[in-house]
Protein: Molybdenum transport system permease
Organism: Modestobacter muralis
Amino acid sequence: MSRRRRDGGVPAPLLVPALLAVAFLVLPLAGLVVRAPWSQIGPQLASPGVGQALRLSLVSATLATAVSLLLGVPLAWVLARSTLRGRSVLRALVTVPLVLPPVVGGVALFLVLGRQGIVGRWLYEATGFSLPFTTAAVVVAETFVAMPFLVISVEGALRAADARFEDAAATLGADRWTTFRRVTLPLVAPGIAAGAVLCWARALGEFGATITFAGNFPGTTQTMPLAVYLALQRDPEAAIVLSLVLLAVSLATLLLLRGRWLGRTVSA
């Protein structure tokens, strides 16, 4: 009994700072909920500007997640299972967007994919298409920022997966591609799902790289974070409504991932 009380108790020197931390993190969110114009949420969400920003954000985040899955899962396999030299350097380069200021990422994208960029100049001369300040640029910027979240999640799942199943498939004559499709992917499916959710949520909330590389044009490149930034100056109620939507998405993301982070056997 005494051991149970000792394990479940919180030392007094830790309790006060913990409560202060909770207050510091939760009170701003509570203030957003308390000050929300609940009677105006319906009309605000139905307004053309807010509706366009919502639709564009949902579509672009979904497309960015799809691109990240297509490219990020193979990259995670290379980082986790291959024997290539320099994997640690490659991993560092791949995860740089996690710590890089998003605005810097937008500048980097502009220098490479802009009309006068390293790749963008060739693209413009060959096709006449300029990527920056288009809806496609929004997807590119969000993919650049969000893909590392998927990669590190899938890489962790691959490292934790039991390789004996893959060895058994190889013993039975399956080639590497068949083993990857029929054995590896099902094994790491929860990690892929968790990474996709994180990637989608990060893409939905992207601001810096988007406004730098894609601009802020209503109906074309103005996503929800950009709309919040502008609405805060001229229509605070619309800014609060959009902020509530982003808050709800963030909470839903954490709830979806709670079982993976804390384990299914942990009770609330």
In short: The two ends are 21 Å apart (CA to CA).
